[in-house]
Amino acid sequence: MRSKLPDIGTTIFTVMSRMAQEYGAINLSQGFPDFDCPPRLRELVSFYLNDRKNQYPPMTGIPQLREQIAAKVLDLYGFAADMDQEVTVTSGGTEALFDAIQATVSRGDEVIVFDPAYDSYGPGIALAGGVTVHIPLSLPDFRIDWNLVKERINERTRMIIINTPHNPSGAIMSRQDMDTLAELTRNREIYVLSDEVYEHMVFDGGVHESVLRHEELRQRSFAVFSFGKTYHATGWKLAYCVAPAALTAEFRKVHQFVTFTSPSFIQYAIADFMRECPEHAKELPAFYQAKRDTFCRLIKDSRFTFTPSRGTYFQLVDYSAISSLPDAEFANHLTQKKGVAAIPLSPFYEKAPKSTLLRFCFCKDDSTLEAAAQILCKL
Ligand code: GLN
After folding, report:
1. What is the rounded CA–CA span in Å between residue 71 and residue 286?
2. Does 4 reside within a domain?
3. Mutation test of ligand 1: which of 29, 30, 121, 224 has the most ligand atoms closer than 8 Å to its C-beta?
4. 23 in contact with ligand 1, CB cutoff 6 A
5. 329 in a domain, yes or no?
6. In terms of CB atoms within 10 Å, which of 21, 186, 193, 253 comes out highest?
7. Using one digit for the tens of pLDDT, what is the confidence trace for 319-360?
8. 312 and 247 in one domain?
9. Domain carrying residue 284
10. CATH of the domain at 24
């Protein structure tokens, strides 16, 4: 059969999680917490399930939830989004990213992504008939080289995908980055797809520079956020996209035929929880910074070297003092022979540099991090 995605295999997250399970390794690969969501949220979900909120909710998401989202966006980013025309609830950030790409990218259009790039962008672009233009982030701190971007922008460029805080590196973009992006896209038909699913995981007093804070950029942007990350409930696959009315209208044309809508009882529960417990999201930076600090402290005397992550729930480490294996082989070895699973970086590149970096996920109970660190410190 002719494949539409001939070069795409199974995502590295599934590969590594499966391997971790098969070999009984501690899973610090795929990004998901091993602790649960807030008990009150679970209570609300079961309440609405039993309250029979089990039929199709509105295509755009229930109004109560969109209202809470708009209030949150105003509070955090100072932007009064119109909940009816600019906010859409989706089945995961993954769906929102896909919808935004399908809504704007046509055959032959170019989309700029920054490598290492989250692995769902490329296939979405390919399925739209677009061409992915890969620009490597500058090492060692994974910054965008705006001169390279300027060189690659042309009349076929339709979209630029940014991701801050950045998976897998933990880098965060600055206000200066946003100003430069606005300048480079000014007076062109270029949309920005801003993957901000880790909006609440910014450390050391850093600020999350959402495109929604930026008056000029937000007029051309799809901003994507995920409840999965914010509420420690990645399995619920509930998220949202904020975009100007004209972009949202096109986005919804796709959304209505990809999923149409998302589980109703979870939408009701999250709407209530956002109203009842706004402090949950506000406490997340400190909560995850403490996890990062615990993990970094636990592996400080190991032979891994690292700079503490600035955002996300991932920590990159350099293993060059331990092994000269390529990253994917070292990740397999670590999982199968040593009992800790991690994510290699090469699958996130078109042309991977020779690097000896692995990504560990630290959104785990301290006991999990301690057990993993005991092994890592012996390598
Ligand atoms: N985003 C998660 C990660 O980076 C994985 C998501 C997935 O498995 N699709 O680990």
Report:
1. 22
2. no
3. 30
4. no
5. yes
6. 193
7. 999 999 999 999 999 999 999 999 999 999 999 998 899 999
8. no
9. 12-30+280-376
10. 3.90.1150.10
Note whether 218 and 288 are same-domain residues.
Answer: no
Q: What is the pLDDT of residues 154-189, one digit of tens each?
A: 999 999 999 999 999 999 999 999 999 999 999 999
This prediction's pTM: 0.98
Residues 285 and 268 placed together within one structural domain of the fold: no
**Would residue 217 count as lying in a domain?**
yes
What is the Cα gyration radius of the chain?
20
Strand partners, 224: 195, 241
Ligand 1 atom closest to Cα of residue 14: 8
Among residues 276, 300, 318, the one where a domain terminates is 276
Residue 233's pLDDT band (boundaries 50, 70, 90)?
very high
Q: Helix %, strand %, coil % for the chain, to 5?
A: 45, 15, 40
Task: Specify whether 317 is located in the same domain as 351.
Answer: yes
Using left for φ > 0, alpha for ψ between -120 and 50, and beta otherwise, residue 333 falls in alpha
One domain for residues 158 and 306: no
Strands, sheet with 357-361, edge to edge from the N-terminal-most edge strand: 314-318, 357-361, 343-344
Domain count, the chain: 2
Residue 209 — φ and ψ, nearest 5°?
A: -85, 80
155 CA to centre of ligand 1 in angstroms:
33
In short, whether 13's Cβ falls inside 6 Å of ligand 1 is yes
Amino acid present at 50: N
237 and 213 together in one domain = yes
Ligand 1: centre distance to CA 284 (Å) = 19
Q: Is the CB of 31 under 6 A from ligand 1?
A: yes
Tell me: do 96 and 194 sit in the same domain. Answer: yes
For residue 5, is it within any domain? no
The Å distance, Cα 349 to ligand 1 centre, comes to: 16
- Residues 150, 270, single domain; the answer is yes
The torsion angles phi and psi of 357, rounded to 5 degrees, stand at -115, 145
Distance from residue 119's CA to the centre of ligand 1 (Å): 9
Q: What is the mean pLDDT of the chain?
A: 98
Percentage of residues in the chain with pLDDT exceeding 90? 99
- pLDDT given for residue 41 in this prediction: 98
